[in-house]
Amino acid sequence: MKLPPPITRDAPTGLADDYSVRLGKGQIARIKLEQQTPTDAWIDWVFVPPAHRGKGLAGRLMARVLADADAAGITVSLEPRACAGLDQGALERWYQGFGFGDTGRRGDFGPIYQRAPAESSGFG
């Protein structure tokens, strides 16, 4: 059984700014974050190359981001933006599956979603 590519991050501890999986030459799945305050971060974008979509890569990356955010006590916000043929409703439901909820605020492209840190079990 082939192991999935490892997730790399640009920080040795805490919440990183960039989480990625290298899939091949020029092929990288990535979540990019911006730490806005010591307790708040914004997901700038989530990207998986089209040839690698539907394989759970974005979910693996998101789970790692949220585990790190939970461990650090950080609230994560984002603005779901369906592009490249993705369905906006399906994208919003995908984020809701990770505990994000609509804040009632709107950004430039749509609703602002937010997820408070979950209780940490002490395992990372």
Helix content: 10-25%
State the secondary-structure class: alpha+beta
The ordered H/E elements are EEEEHEHEE
Radius of gyration: 14 Å
Note the overall shape.
globular
Residue-averaged pLDDT:
89
Number of helices: 2
Strand tally is 7
| First-residue to last-residue Cα separation | 25 Å
Description of the structure:
The mean pLDDT is 89. Helix content is 20%, strand content 35%. Strands 1-2-3-4-5-7-6 form a seven-stranded mixed sheet, covered by helices on one side. Strand 2 and strand 3 (27-37) form a beta hairpin. With 124 residues, the chain is an alpha+beta fold. It is built from two helices and seven strands. It has helices at residues 57-72, 88-96, and strands at 8-9, 18-24, 27-37, 40-47, 75-78, 101-106, 111-115.
